[in-house]
Amino acid sequence: MVSVLQTIDSGHEDLIHGAEIDYYGLNLATCSSDNSIKIFDIKNGGQRLKADLKGHGGPVWQLSWAHPKFGNILASCSYDRKVILWKENNGEWTKYYEYNNHDSSVNSVAFAPSEYGLILACGSSDGTISILTCNTETGMFDVKKITNAHTIGCNALSWCPSSLPDAAFDQRSKQNASTNGIQTQVKRFVSGGCDNTVKIWKEDGDRWVEEHKLEVHSDWIRDVAWAPSIGLPSSRIASCSQDRRVIIWNTDDLSTWTPTILNTFDDVVWNVSWSLTGNILGVSGGDNKISLWKENNDGIWSCISEDAENAKENQRQM
Questions:
Q1: Which of 107, 74, 101 is nearest to 222 (CA)?
Q2: Which segments of the chain have a pLDDT < 50?
Q3: pLDDT, tens digit, for every residue of 246-260?
Q4: Which long-range contacts link 76-80 to residues 24+ away (Cβ below 8 Å)?
Q5: Which are the contacts of 230, defined by CB distance < 8 A and separation ≥ 6?
Q6: C-alpha 133 chain-centroid distance
Q7: pLDDT digits (tens, 9 = 90+) for 28-63
Q8: Of 85, 184, 204, which is closest to residue 141 (Cα–Cα)?
Q9: Rounded to the nearest 10 degrees, how much is the dihedral formed by the CA atoms of 299, 201, 213, 253?
Q10: pLDDT 10s digits, 261-284
Q11: Predicted structure pTM score
């Protein structure tokens, strides 16, 4: 059973669309249809409002924290077509960079693994994906855009882990570039869109190309999540959709992806999120329930926990 550890009164005046905790678990950022972003200090179970950021002219859909090696940096995206990077200096949060080169709502932002540098991917309803790369010495950003990434629009993004999941098991280094004997991996991320497809993109020289198109869902993709690498000889991605299904995509070689339907839920599924060890998947949807799923040794996925309200309802029915 999922239990509530802490409740925070956000003070938002409208729907909350995103809540993200930073790398060290010290700060919580929330965003809302009231066009604002709030940052809370949550050390030692406390709750102190540190910043109320107002820079967007529309609902703020999603947030992403950069790795702390780059400082306290938070990215936000909004219906106003903007992406804003906020940075904390001496306790004060200010606008660090603003990107406004999308023609429609920006629905998703995701920072790349820190090993690649300060890189942010942005998915928009205009059907394009932008990749912003910061030169940390000059503070200047280089922008590459994937046009026609998803028909009608892109809803979600998630980066592939920077470490090869099979590095301890075989020598697939021939597939990747190597510099001075140091193994480097091709940058990849996964996206989901209104064309009902999940797509995997990889960096090829100075451009990004579509590597795979995964087609099983029958309605808009609402979220995608690439599982963290835990040294196992496989990669996996979770996707969820308006079709009420969650699908787990598995591969051993990054070439052939095998889909497994985790479950068909009672309502649209909005979010999927992996545990830090990559073996437990959290699912939330339009039924206002949160469930945790785990795979057994036979490859069968089962629900190991549901929220308290749902658990109580199940008990009443027993």
A1: 107
A2: 165-183, 308, 310-318
A3: 999 999 989 999 999
A4: 76/31, 76/37, 76/109, 77/106, 77/107, 77/108, 77/109, 77/122, 78/35, 78/105, 78/106, 79/105, 80/56, 80/105
A5: 165, 277, 278, 279
A6: 18
A7: 999 999 999 999 999 888 889 999 999 999 999 999
A8: 85
A9: -40
A10: 999 999 999 999 999 888 899 999
A11: 0.88
Dist CA 209 CA 293 (whole Å): 32
Virtual torsion, Cα 219, 243, 239, 2, nearest 10 deg: 150
CB-count exposure of residue 221 (10 Å: 0-12, 13-18, 19+): buried
Confirm if 130 and 99 have CB atoms less than 8 A apart.
yes
Query: Under 8 Å CB-to-CB from 231, ≥6 apart: which residues?
Result: 165, 167, 168
Q: Could you tell me which of 7, 19, 13, 14 has the C-alpha nearest to residue 284?
A: 19
- Taking the C-alpha atoms of residue 159 and residue 152, their distance in angstroms, rounded to an integer, is 22
Q: What is the pLDDT of residue 4?
A: 61
The strand order across the sheet containing 119-124 reads 106-111, 119-124, 129-135, 140-146
Q: Whole-angstrom Cα distance, residue 163 to residue 235?
A: 11
